[in-house]
C-alpha cells in the first residue's frame, strides 16, 4: 500500500464522533460541524484533501495552526514524526489536549496561543497546516517553513478563501498554487 492509500484507509477507519460530543451517525455525514465556542470542524473529505496536499513524510516535523477538535491533528500525528499544534481558544486547547493524549497520540505537542506567530522554539517546520481562514499568509509562518517545505493554508475574505499550497524550494524561493475554494472560520491573531 502506498502512502496515499494508507491515509485513505486511516480516513475510512477513523470515527469522527470520537473528536466531538455528537453521535456517530451525524459525525459520518460529510459536512462541517460545530465544535463549540463558535468554531467548526471541516467536512471529512476536505480534511482528507488537505492532508494529502501536505504530502506528509514519516520524518516530517509539522506545525498545525487551529487544533480545534483534534480530528485533523490525528491525521498529522499518524503520518508524520512530530506535530506542534496551536489553538487560541483555551477551552478547546484544554479539552482536545486531554482527548488526544487519552487516545494515545503521543507525538503531539500542544500550545495555547495565537498561532499566527508560529512556534519559533521548534522552527523550522517541514510542513505547516493552517485550518482557519487567513487574510494573507502570516510572514512568521513563511519564515518558519523549512527549505523544501510545504504549507497548506486557506487565504481570502470572510465569504470564501483560496486553498493555497505554498512551497519553499531548497534555495528559499516560494511558490503558491490555488487548489480550489473553501470556507473556514477566521484566523484571529497578530500576523506580524
Ligand atoms: N482543524 C480543526 C479540527 O480538525 O477540528 C478545525 C479547526 S477550526 C476550522 C479553526 C480553529 O482555528 C478554531 O479552533 C479556532 O479557534 C482556531 N484559531 C483561529 N485563529 C487562531 C490562531 N491565531 N491561532 C491558533 N488557533 C486559531
TrEMBL record:
Domain of life per record: Bacteria
Keyword match Transcription regulation: no
E.C. designation(s): 2.1.1.77
GO biological process: methylation; protein repair
Subcellular location: Cytoplasm
Gene3D superfamilies named in the record: Vaccinia Virus protein VP39 (3.40.50.150)
Keyword Nuclease found: no
CDD domains: AdoMet_MTases (cd02440)
Family: Belongs to the methyltransferase superfamily. L-isoaspartyl/D-aspartyl protein methyltransferase family.
Protein name per Swiss-Prot or TrEMBL: Protein-L-isoaspartate O-methyltransferase
Species this protein is from: Dethiosulfatibacter aminovorans DSM 17477
Amino acid at each position: 500500500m502506498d502512502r496515499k492509500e494508507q491515509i485513505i484507509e486511516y480516513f475510512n477507519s477513523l470515527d469522527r464522533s470520537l473528536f466531538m460530543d455528537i453521535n456517530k451517525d451525524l459525525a459520518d455525514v460529510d459536512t462541517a460541524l460545530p465544535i463549540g465556542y463558535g468554531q467548526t470542524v471541516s467536512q471529512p473529505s476536505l480534511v482528507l484533501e488537505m492532508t494529502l496536499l501536505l504530502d506528509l513524510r514519516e520524518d516530517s516535523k509539522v506545525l498545525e495552526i487551529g487544533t480545534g477538535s483534534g480530528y485533523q491533528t490525528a491525521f498529522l500525528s499518524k503520518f508524520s514524526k512530530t506535530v506542534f499544534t496551536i489553538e487560541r481558544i483555551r477551552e478547546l486547547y484544554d479539552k482536545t489536549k486531554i482527548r488526544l493524549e487519552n487516545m494515545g497520540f503521543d507525538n503531539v505537542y500542544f500550545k495555547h496561543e495565537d498561532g499566527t506567530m508560529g512556534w519559533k522554539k521548534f522552527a523550522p517546520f517541514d510542513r505547516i497546516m493552517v485550518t482557519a481562514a487567513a487574510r494573507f499568509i502570516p510572514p512568521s509562518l513563511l519564515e518558519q517553513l523549512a527549505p523544501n517545505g510545504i504549507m497548506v493554508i486557506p487565504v481570502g475574505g470572510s465569504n470564501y478563501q483560496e486553498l493555497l499550497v505554498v512551497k519553499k524550494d531548497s534555495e528559499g524561493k516560494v511558490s503558491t498554487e490555488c487548489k480550489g475554494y473553501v470556507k473556514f472560520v477566521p484566523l484571529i491573531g497578530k500576523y506580524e
